[in-house]
Amino acid sequence: MSNEPFGTRLRAAMDTRGPLCVGIDPHAHLLDSWGLPDTADGLASFTYGVVDALADRVAVFKPQSAFFERFGSAGIAVLEQATTRLRDAGALVIIDAKRGDIGSTMAGYASAYLAEKGPLACDALTVSPYLGFGSLQPAIDEARVAGAGLFVLALTSNPEGPQFQSARTVAGPTVAGAVLDGLRALNADAEDLGSFGAVVGATISSTDEDLDIRGPLLAPGLGAQGGTAEGLAEVFGPAVRNVVPSSSREILGAGPSAAALQDAAARANDAFRTVLGY
Ligand SMILES: O=c1ccn([C@@H]2O[C@H](COP(=O)(O)O)[C@@H](O)[C@H]2O)c(=O)[nH]1
């Protein structure tokens, strides 16, 4: 990995390849529709099919750890191998594992995913702040050392999210607002795009929260969950240029043909380029 901070590398990658992030979510129904068995071998064929088709042309990939964990150590081995291959091809990898625990345990996750020589070393990791924003400190420290990034859950795309995320903290702001405040502070010195991002679903329609955190805004929920490229402008307002639009099933459903995957990714990238101003 270059020594440049994640935010700088992310902006450069999106400038070069377009803003699209392809989620790698090997659902059982997708393996089936690709004519593959719901086994670790099927998982490997599916995942490497996506990697071979798209690694040299898409800026960012977001493998969903759950679908690899489903197959135990054999599945994790596929995740490790795919992450290495994607990064070798010049793409950035955000592992979506939504890790979060007390600080001392968080340090274990940080050394697995963020440390430069960690077994699952990636460019950024999704993390959960629900043990307190401060519990993320070991991951923040490791990310700074490694030039990696974090995406902290703030306003998630699922309909249950507001139940907690819109609740007020003792200090006054909502839970989501407190997360965004924490991220803004971490990115305070960033020149363009900081390395500490928020997860904000493309499905939330609009928000009163201040999304200007000087960092990336990972936006899942596009396609299968109903979010659209055009809708991003309304959700994100002036912060739209910092959005990393992530789409999984919508793109993956085009496979197994490499040409069809490339076509689906190119069309999505074009739509996002227009809305995000790339
Ligand atoms: O708020 C969130 C946070 C994460 N996700 C993850 O993104 C993908 C979405 O997949 P699609 O097939 O594009 O719907 C999946 O891995 C989720 O766990 C999210 O959807 N919302």
Automatic annotation (TrEMBL):
Give the pathway listed in the UniProt entry for this protein. Pyrimidine metabolism; UMP biosynthesis via de novo pathway; UMP from orotate: step 2/2
The EC category is lyase
Q: Which reaction does it catalyse?
A: orotidine 5'-phosphate + H(+) = UMP + CO2
Against Gene3D superfamilies, the record matches this protein to:
Aldolase class I
- Give this protein's Gene Ontology molecular function annotations: orotidine-5'-phosphate decarboxylase activity
Protein name, as recorded: Orotidine 5'-phosphate decarboxylase
Q: Keywords, A to Z?
A: Decarboxylase, Lyase, Pyrimidine biosynthesis
- Which positions are tagged coiled coil? none
List the PANTHER family hit by this protein, alphabetically: OROTIDINE 5'-PHOSPHATE DECARBOXYLASE
Which SUPFAM superfamilies does the record associate with it? Ribulose-phoshate binding barrel (SSF51366)
Orotidine 5'-phosphate decarboxylase domain segment(s):
19-264
Family as reported in the entry's similarity comment:
Belongs to the OMP decarboxylase family. Type 2 subfamily.
User: Pfam families this protein is in?
Assistant: OMPdecase
Q: Which residues does UniProt mark as catalytic?
A: K98
Q: What is an annotated GO biological process for this record, any one? A: 'de novo' UMP biosynthetic process
Q: What is its EC number?
A: 4.1.1.23
